[in-house]
Design a protein that fits this description.
This protein has 279 residues and is α+β, with helices and mostly antiparallel strands. It is built from eleven helices and seven strands. The strands form two sheets. The chain has a four-stranded antiparallel beta sheet, sandwiched between helices. Strands 4-5-6 form a three-stranded antiparallel beta sheet, covered by helices on one side. The chain is globular and about 60 Å long. It starts with a helix and ends with a strand.
């Protein structure tokens, strides 16, 4: 998929970051998403005329050699954008690649068929390589390919119970998940209890047309379930306690979310679900 297919705007944009890539906003609305996995490099430069700064340009270079330039809007912190893009991409590339079990390799399947297969008995959800603990590990690992991470999320939020469900929910509080992963969780029968409606609609703006269509088909196949939403709501209290402990253990240098906000009750359990770290 080309940059032209991923980005609906390239001028006067703002950037924010999550664990899987760079979010591009146009006039405070989502305009596309660039996964770190497709990037070879991100570079930024000031365009000047004499001593006057005309614009700040970020260049995305894909591993395929494709290049696109985006200009940041006047409200952006250009130096922070340059620093964050370099740091986040380098951190992602430094992590070891994840070896996926065959059932979590999408291949040529449609996205919705892939997610359904992983979450169903036939897709191997209860086989050794895809037991809930294994899926939770893949969901939390930032180098897990985004589509596989989305499949793990969909399977767990659809099917997991008890402590396995709480572990999956915790991951959405602690981690800044890529939009597709959160949108996949939102498309489950109980996803409305995890992903607020406004966040779900916002994240749809980062998805490709094909991804939005696939998730729409999933909802038609597996519609909303009040009982599943109730189960997720009950599990969220355990997830919050576990998330607080994990954030505190990570410390200020390792976490992007403050544990104190959870401890003091100043943030709702789902307040950070789907959020990036903005500049």
């Amino acid at each position: 998929m080309t940059f032209a297919e991923r980005l609906r705007a390239t001028r006067n944009v703002r950037l924010s970051f999550d664990e899987g890539g760079i979010r591009v906003d146009d006039r405070e609305k989502p305009a596309g998403y660039v996964p770190y996995a497709i990037l070879r490099d991100v570079s930024c430069e000031l365009v000047r005329e004499w001593l006057v700064v005309l614009e700040f340009v970020c260049t995305f270079e894909a591993v395929t050699g494709e290049v696109v330039k985006v200009t940041l809007d006047e409200k952006s912190d250009a130096l922070a954008a340059q620093r964050s893009a370099a740091v986040e991409l380098a951190a992602f590339k430094a992590r070891a690649e994840v070896l996926l079990p065959p059932a979590l390799v999408r291949g040529d399947r449609a996205l919705d068929a892939f997610l359904l297969a992983v979450s169903s008995e036939g897709g191997g959800y209860r086989e050794g390589s895809l037991v809930p603990a294994a899926l939770s590990g893949l969901l939390e690992e930032t180098r897990t390919p985004i589509e596989a991470r989305a499949a793990a999320a969909y399977a767990l939020i659809c099917e997991a119970e008890g402590e396995a469900l709480a572990m999956a929910l915790r991951a959405f509080i602690v981690h800044a998940m890529p939009p597709l992963v959160v949108a996949a969780a939102a498309a489950t029968p109980g996803g409305g209890a995890l992903v607020p409606d406004d966040v779900r609609e916002w994240l749809r703006g980062y998805l490709t047309d094909g991804e939005r269509a696939a998730l729409g088909r999933l909802v038609a196949v597996r519609p909303r379930s009040v009982s599943r939403e109730d189960a997720i709501t009950q599990a969220l209290s355990r997830a919050k306690e576990s998330a607080q402990a994990q954030l505190e253990a990570m410390g200020d240098g390792g976490a992007k979310r403050p544990a104190g906000a959870l401890l003091a009750g100043t943030a709702s359990t789902t307040a950070w679900v789907g959020r990036s770290w903005s500049l």
